[in-house]
Specification:
Chain B: NDH-1 is composed of 14 different subunits. Subunits NuoA, H, J, K, L, M, N constitute the membrane sector of the complex. The complex is a heterotrimer of chains A (523), B (99) and C (648). Chain A is mainly α. Chain A has 21 helices and two strands. The chains are: A mainly alpha (523), B mainly alpha (99), C mainly alpha (648).
Chain lengths: 523, 99, 648
Amino acid sequence: MSFPLLTATAALPALGAVATAAVPARQRTAAKWLALLVSLATLALAIVVLVRFDPDGARYQLTESHSWIRDFGVRYELGVDGIAVALIGLTAVLMPFIVLAGWHDADPLETGSRRWRPTQGFFALILAVEAMVIISFEATDVFVFYIFFEAMLIPMYFLIGGFGDRAHSQGEEAASTQRSYAAVKFLLYNLAGGLIMLAAVIGLYVVAGSFSLQEIVQARADGSLTMATSTERWLFLGFFFAFAVKAPLWPLHTWLPNAMQESTAPVAVLITAVVDKVGTFAMLRFCLQLFPEASKWATPVILVLALISIVYGALLAVGQRDIKRLVAYASISHFGFIVMGIFAMTTQGQSGATLYMVNHGISTAALMLVAGFLISRRGSRLIADYGGVQKVAPVLAGTFLIGGLATLSLPGLAPFVSEFLVLVGTFSRYPVIGIIATVGIVLAALYTLVLYQRTMTGPVKPEVSAMPDLRVREVLVVAPLIVLLVFLGVYPKPLTSIVDPAVKQTMSDVQQKDPKPAVEAAK
Amino acid sequence: MNPVNYLYLAALLFTIGATGVLIRRNAIVVFMCVELMLNACNLAFVTFSRMHGNLDGQIIAFFTMVVAAAEVVVGLAIIVSLFRTRHSASVDDASLMKL
Amino acid sequence: MENLIALLIAAPLLGAVVLLLGGRRLDAVGHWVGTLLSTASFVVGLVLFAGLLGKDAEHRTWTQHLWSWIPVGDFQADVTLRLDQLSMTFVLLITGVGSLIHLYSIGYMEHDERRRRFFGYLNLFLAAMLLLVLADNYLLLYVGWEGVGLASYLLIGFWQHKPSAATAAKKAFLVNRVGDVGLSIAIMLMFTTFGTFAFGPVLEHAGDASEGRLTAIGLMLLLAACGKSAQVPLQSWLGDAMEGPTPVSALIHAATMVTAGVYLIVRSAAIFNGAPDAQLVVTVVGGVTLLFGAIVGCAKDDIKKALAGSTMSQIGYMVLAAGLGPIGYVFAIMHLVTHGFFKAGLFLGAGSVMHGMNDEVDMRKYGGLRKYMPITFVTFGLGYLAIIGFPGLSGFFSKDKIIEAAFAKGGAEGWILGGVALLGAAITAFYMTRVMLMTFFGEPRWKNQPTKSPEAPSAEPAAEHQGAHGEPHPHESPRTMTIPMIVLAVGSVAGGAFFDVGDRFLHWLEPVTGHSEGHSPLSALTVTGATMVCLVLGVGLAWAQYGRKPVPAHAPRGSVLTRAARRDLYQDDFNHVVLVRGGEHLTRSLVYVDHTLVDGVVNGSAAGFGGLSGRLRRVQNGFARSYAVSMFGGAALLVAATLLMRAV
């Protein structure tokens, strides 16, 4: 039997989480280094997965399959396609930066207490999330996926509720109240989605008699399994609801701004850049493949919801006074693009959506982490408390601008490639929706540049006049992300060549073909 | 004699007991009413045993007696200790468990 | 030879990367590095030009495939560069004028502590602009298109500590983004129409597409051009863009970037040729902007804003010419090149004047400067003569051709467009003479008064180093600044004649754009005569108003039109009320809706459950007897239900 590479990729951070949690209270720094090393080792394993993965090979590769709960036909089945590989790569790449950016976020305020070990807990929870996210990307058994999709909520809940920004303007007690509100809101929304999905998972088992994605897809393809139209639609809605909460799609989005606002910047990145991607990924893997007919049936409504998310999220981002909330609403707008690309049912749309997940992860990480550095210096999240930072801390302002430009999808940076693909993919099938979505382009420029102008330009405010520029650790976090953004913007081919075959497969699963151009001779 | 009359008696006893449980405040009286209900059940069981001609009802009646005896032991102990601490045997006074 | 094309872009790009990442240690040499790399690009351009000239007119298209950029299914975007006569013309203009302005900036930005970064941005601009004109497909062009937008944003807002500069930069980027939406929709339309967006196949097969689609693509391209080239209705950013340092205004907002819209239209000639409706709209936009810019230019007292109005108006000429179809394409580009010379020269002259006048921009506080700045006076004067179309100078040739072509359009359309172009020429002569007279002639109005009024901070903070308060001492600028001005003045004088003699420019560009002679109802001589009459009228009027009598140092109230023109014909106010205010209300109410309605539904249901459980909690009152009652009640219900089921 070959080495279980996929299990190892997920198990390593899980074991790392246990080990980090077990580090004695006094050795906080050791815990940080351990977490960093584990995340780097996971990245190494992810690179091995990437290298071993053959884009033109079988649909699912590096597969593992073991019997687990025999009575219910639950099997421990793992396997990756190009889309999953790309997202595992994203997760593994971002983790070391998240750990590094959060280096001091969980230092205890008063030292001396022997039992109190927040630092160990913080990093252990982050690694636990990584493990669960990775295995969610790998699972090809619906039941296994469901377990980790839901279990992720536990560490996330503690990360949001337990750790917040230092030096809160309204005092520690008010901050703690708001944090627990945000954490509970996050938990309730996602639990509600998860419960409905659980019902659908059970329903699927009743109808199909199996939890295995591959078996069900195969059975549906060769006609040995037929679903009544209404059954398929109900099951689809059950799955989609959970993913739409996680993604999040309008009008199920309101947990995200609260959660991102109250958590520390690295955790906010973890939420929006990594955990939320499981939702959009699952739409592509489970909704479309298990329920192709229902997906087509629901497409018009979902596209409209996505469109609303795009415009609505961007408009609300313009109206925000809090830096982190602004980024959160911008993310809602971007998730609208991702969902739109998935359900446009064209090669460009779905490839674009997958690229978008990766690029959005990187660009949001860059913007949000720099914003976190900025906030930690001044102790305020309010845009109005800043001004003229550019003059005091030019490197910080420069990286912030690049992060912002990536968010507004400037050509030459990675997000442009994916955003344009999504737009083209949508436009070629639904021109009106594609055109309305371009409004998002203008609004993205508006909220990004207004944010930059209000915080970075103008006369230097007295409160920021002594602000130090980025430190070495912080530059180490931001610089590689910016390099990645530029590289994937100029040369995205390595990514597209991995993603493309998987998207073609998905397209054939839903029996869709790209529309033909009006003048074919030109090609 | 028609065995159904015993059932009527059992029902009467049970109703008296139940009413007592519901309307009396004194814990001892409530307790005695519970016993009355148990015995009403016993009577019904024995009657059924007689009517159907098998011993199942009688056996269950014995079980009930044993359980009732055990219950009396525990119940009386609780009532006595309650009376000691609060100097009252009223069931309404013991409402500390409410939310 | 083809492999040199990438080098054109690589040189300034390298400069931008080195200068922006290099840090303080490059402060001492940064400006020379930037200038050197920009000049290197110009030299490569000359080498390529020589190579192209050595080929037949039909074989002057070189492409260089670099790498496959976005390959997704049928969507194939490559990084391929294309050098033909059209892009070659732009390459020489961009790198030539660009290098001169780099040289000029060395002197102009001498006292700015962030000079290195300024040169980094300038190099970034050159790289993006070259990518724009060298791209072989529309998506790659889009990269350059937004790249110049970014460079323009960074340079307009170069003095970021001034809120007005930061606002102007943001405004420029946003208005351009609206135009960019047009470009991206155009590319999407091309993809659905042709299955590709590379120049070759799209332009070759444009004729096969339906006219409706071509019109849609054309209008979207026009929207893009309006944004970048500051045409009505997206013109409002250009005036504010003058907040940037003057060399930036000369390079980006006069000579090169703002003409990108004209490039786009001429490059897409095949599409517009198949869409007469779109062409009509192009000419209308050009004509309206031509008058709009000219009128605004007449009323501004700020020398840079007056020139900005003029730029808008001149680009209006080019867009108008481009809208005329094959009879106008070549002349649009020709005017673009000559305009590049004289307008850059004029801006550099304005910068030189400001440099000597403690960065005062108000022309009412100039006057009589010809004695103090002789070189600036002569070079500015030559640029002035060129732009008003003085016979023999470059503007005379290029503008005259456009007016002729407008009449040659034929029909009522031709008469209207030609009339507008003639009227524009008269107004041009008026406002440029006004600038000239107010700046260099008349009594000095700067004596005995501090130049700075405290409530109006200077546009160019470099003045802080020169003893800002007190009487200015006008002086000639250093040699790094005068040399570029002299070179550009030579170009303004000789360029037009050089291009026009033997129709050199026409023959050079014709293979790319195509050309046809129209049937003008007027002879060429009549048109030239009419133009001359307009010119004399304009100059005479301006002299009567500003030359004969002294210019008041404070602006008079002026007529309704003057006041409107001072405020950019209220276009900004309209934007402010409708878009800015409206947008603010919209976002504010949406924030409220999100909080109360969307979130409120969820929070409300949570509160509902909370209230319900609060009620239910009361049932648990702690009285043992009430529990007993509910038990008995429940048991009774069960028994009743069982009996009922039996009975049924």
